[in-house]
C-alpha cells in the first residue's frame, strides 16, 4: 500500500501489494482510494493524470456534496468520471442535511461516543445495492484503467467499496481490514480539510479528529455481517446483481487471474 502525497488531498493511496488467500498480491497502479479530490492543485492533477496514470474517478459522494463542493479539477481533464452515491437522496431534502449524513463519526450531538460503525456500512449495501453493483462493475471493466475511488474522507463509503472489491479478488481478510485502518494514519489531515470546508465544517463542529478515526472492529463487524447475511462477499455481489464474469474480471484486474473469493 503506497501513499500518494498530494497538496490538495490527504488520504490517497494505491492498494497494490496486498496479499491474497492463495499467496499472490494485488497489482499496483490499478486501484487507488482517496478522500475528497476537490482541492487538488495543478501539480496534483498533473501527477495523478501523468505519473500515476489515473484514467477513471468513481465519486461516491452525494448529489448534495457535489453541488456544494463542485466536481473538482480532474473534471477539466480527459479522466472519466462516474457519480455513484451510496447514501439515499430525497428530492426535497436540504443539501446541508444530506451532507450531514454523508460523513459518519463516533460522536452524537449530545456528546455521546459511538463505537460501532457497522450500521452505516450495512446501510450503504442495503440502501444503494444498484449503485454498489455499478461501482464494482466499473472497477472490473478493463477499459477503466487506473481508477481512484473516493468520497469525502476516504474511509467509510470508499472503505466499503474497496473492501468488497479486494475481498472479491481474493485478498485476505486481515489485509482488507489493515488497508481500511490505514486511513487512521492521515485522519488529522483529513479532519483539518473537512472542518475547514464550508460544506462539511458545520456538520463536524461538535466532533474531534478521533471521532472520525477508523477502527478495525468496524470493518470486521461489517464483514461478519456480510458473511452471515449473504454467505460472504461473493454472495453479496451476486445478490446485488454482479455476475460471475464481473467477479472474474475484477480479480483479473486487481490480481492478474481469477481466484474464487471466499
Description:
The chain has 262 residues and is of the alpha/beta class. It has a single domain (2-254), classed as Protein-Tyrosine Phosphatase, Chain A (Alpha-Beta Complex). Helix content is 41%, strand content 9%. It contains 11 helices and 6 strands. It has a 6-stranded mixed β-sheet with strand order 1-2-3-6-4-5. Strand 4 (54-59), helix 2 and strand 5 (80-83) form a beta-alpha-beta unit. Helix 6 (157-168) packs antiparallel against helix 7. The longest helix is centred in the C-terminal third of the chain and has 15 residues, at 216-230. The two termini are 22 Å apart.
Summarize the structure.
This protein has 262 residues and is of the alpha/beta class. Helix content is 41%, strand content 9%. Strands 1-2-3-6-4-5 form a six-stranded mixed beta sheet.
Low-confidence stretches: 109-113, 258-262
Q: For the largest beta sheet, what order do the strands appear in spatially?
A: 1-2-3-6-4-5
Average per-residue pLDDT, rounded, comes to 91
Q: In one word, what is the shape?
A: globular
How many individual β-strands? 6
Q: N-to-C terminal Cα separation, in Å?
A: 22 Å
Instruction: Report the helical percentage.
Output: 40-55%
How many domains, as an integer? 1
User: Strand portion, in percent?
Assistant: 5-15%
Q: CATH homologous superfamily - what is it?
A: Protein tyrosine phosphatase superfamily
